[in-house]
Amino acid sequence: MVDETFKQQVDAYVDEVWEDVVEDVRTLVRIESVEDLDAAEPGKPWGPKSNEALVAAEKIAERLGLEVTDVDGYLGFGDVPGASGPDAYVATIAHTDIVPVGLGWQRPALDVTRERGFLFGRGVLDDKGPFVLSLYAAHFFARAVAAGATLPYTLRCIIGNNEETGMGDVPYYLERYPEPLFCFSPDADFPLICGEKGVYHGQFTSGPVAGGRLVSLDGGTVPNAICGQATALVRGTVTELPAAERVELSDAGDGLVRVVATGVGGHASMPAGSVNAIGILVRYLLGNGLCEEPQRPFLELVRTLTEDTDGTAVGIAASDDKFGALTCVQGTIRTVDGRFVQSVDSRYPTTTTGEAITAAMTALGEAHGCAYECLGDAEPFYISPDSEPIRALLSTYEEYTGREGKAYTIGGGTYARHFKRACAFGPHEPAEPEPDFVGMEHGPDEGVSEEHLRRALKVYIVSIARLMELDLTA
Length: 474
Hints:
five-stranded antiparallel sheet, 9 helices
């Protein structure tokens, strides 16, 4: 199926549909599809805005000629039928939910801005832009089928809706539908991700200590994004508090001062280059005595947590030859019912376990008068980079980029970890760094190269064509 004529057809197709691709990305970016479990209801398990994005995505898929199924609002999928029938299929899976917009944007967060060859907006990279690419890749084959061609396998685009906050949508799907023969998720970096660290979440909770000299703490947007800004309300006056780097002071009224610490946010799995605002804030509070004695142990605990990002300070550091070093970061700090709550996000290799992390964190909490709870633990995932489907995807990447296609592992968690035969496959291109004005995923001014997306769409179409040529049933 794949020859030079086929690739020329792919080039022409991408040129033809590209403006429609951008507008469909815009349609989804305009929806603030953040999980809202407080507003969940039957048919909208992740809340109304997440469901709005899911429905909008399903409408796009239907317009592009896919046979669409909504799975009780948990997620959806669109099929291009093949000779194998609906139970033996090749799949893509991407998601339409997002992390909260957060602070620090210089461009509209809930729209697509085209500037200097880049697209900006929450979700253009993670993952609404790549999701739309998956639909248009399927549309290419849907047109061929409509013209009389036959696919060996059904092609299914799974429309995820809960990736950012727990991936509860995929288990619901797998309870009702068979596993794909092979699946890739366009929600990561090229060349190809064949393994993912364990993903671990937990939280510390203090005793009832809020409301003294230190009235409240609040920072971060979600546990899996490094905190870019954190705020404390303390009793006192602005004039009595010293200035400090990355700290701003303002009068909050009623004898209170607002202390705002600003760091450098980023994805929890890639802490290099980040500066955790929570660490800045607690060090300022401790260093200037802005707490009462019952509050101090919690702040000292958080100071220890933010000493590093590899878990050394809390005794959980680990590494292996597949995944490298463990990471441990703090994404949110909150005041809840008079108590302080600190989140923990760790991505761990095969040389440790979630149970070991829980044991260490529990002991740390007890030493500081805090309770600790493990909120989630997913074991590491790995697929051999020598398997035929992986080689097919990597060879296609090499053709279109001229770079070596080498599979690697990451600390992030993608949908791929939920399937037996799967991987994460682009579209971000780390080999071609973006300028400083382009933000990263989960951060302000999230952006992606428009040309990289165009090339990725070609890679996805040709890769799917090559998967269709393999015997995936063995």
